[in-house]
Specification:
- It is a single chain.
- Helix 9 packs parallel to helix 19.
- The relative contact order is 0.13.
- The protein contains 22 helices and 9 strands.
- Helix content is 45%, strand content 4%.
Length: 552
Amino acid sequence: MPDYSQAKPTMAYAPLRLEDYDISPTHGFLPSEPPLRRLPDPYYAPWEDVMDRFNQYLLAHHIRRLVRKMPVLGTDKLATQAEYRRAFSILSFMAHAFVWGRNGAISEPAAEFLPASISVPWVAVAEFLQLNPVICCAAVCHWNWQVLDEEAADPMDIDNLGTIHTFSGSLDESWFYLVTTAIEAKCARGLNAILAATVGAEQDDIQQVTLALHQIAYSLGEANEILERMYERCDPYVFYWKIREFLAGWENMEDAGLAHGVLYEGVDDTDTFSLDNWQSLQRRFRKYAGGSAAQTPLLQAFDIALGIKHFPTGKKGPQSSVADARNRLRAQGVPEPPIVNSYLVQMRDYMPGGHRRFLEDLAATCKVREYVLLSCSDSLLHMGAADDPRVRMRQAYNGCVDLMKSFRDKHIMIVSRYIIAPAKSGPMVPQRVAVSCPGKMAPPSAYLQAMAKQMPEPQSGGRLGGDSLPADPVMYPQTNIAASTTSASPVSKCPAHGLISADMRPNSVPAAQSKTRLARRLDEGAVARGTGGTDAIQFLKQVRNETADTRI
């Protein structure tokens, strides 16, 4: 067995069990049973009543009013892990709808204060689940799915899954979540294989490690196939302009109107009157990243299993060659460099506690890359026979790394198409459709003429009554009557048929852009940030390149 006992600080070895970390052997980081669709205790009816018509309330601009009216409920009546997950998920939806749910209203900014009716129970539930009180991958993907046909050959196939809640009520948003959910389910095989590979490396069993690597590759292949299906039912325009903002957090969101973050009322603003000044209160605002693919423990588990190291964005790690890596491993008391990308480590705080501990314990016990490195000499790397078991193990390992790189290539393409391209092009809408104007029309009745005089003048870009406010012409350019009138293409009237024609090409509305939104057209050279608050492309490209550099 290769001697790497002193090459890496480890915990006392003991085989890990997925069940000990609230991980399902059949569903991976998803629950073994479908998430609850309603909390059973009627005490939580005020929450569930809002969620029953969540999309309608959000569309009608009622969310903030309803949240303010809700009572502050305790969490002592939540009895099971499934109930806590349900509570966290629906509180996340309501909280982000409250903060960002302007529905395009230009005169209503993002909310910097979250009412106690949401913040108090949300923080309590988050502490129980051991993750940050903000929307995350677990809230919208892990705990927000349902099986459509229990008798299906593969109940967890993406075409047999549905979401429980969305912000927009759109098919595009459901599909966006379900792609991640389906990947998590399919990769449960890979998680079991990771543990098998770890045991095989500990026992110097090349055959077991090789077989486990093939199983990991199978899971990664399925993940790549599912990720490619993102384009099928999620439109980039709809995602960027109508969905994405709801998934944002309150860190690095100065440009979106949250310079200080969000104050959780009833949690962080207690004894406010004893504060000396605004700076004292400002320090109590919370800043959290929003929902991000980096918050799924699945990819970090594969990184750990394959020994893929990530370093601070913009910096290159010390692992420059296979020979250097092997020399470091053989050097007594010189450990392999740990994962030090602060963003990826920070994202573990947005995972349930059990999943985070699994990553920590896996990093302390998994030596698969070290085993492959020390099993393959330089001569074997260059001239090894194809039937040599060590060569086959190395090939299986590199196959896994290549599939991880392929997955990250696809992720970069998705970010480019769903964030970068829409941000550069801006909101696009067609001009008014050509309409036929008959030469003779009956005059309106006297009753209709009288009713028309009694109607108030419509507000440009808005609706009348209720909680409606003027619509943001950037988010909803089709409602900006003045802008669309002045920017419309020249029209001509055909005397013979009374046909008004217009250029039907999409036209960008030249209205003044809102500078306090996450969904907005970016200026030339501006950085496109992900919902987690990072420079999305720079971060993803470095992660992809570090993956490729791990090949042996």
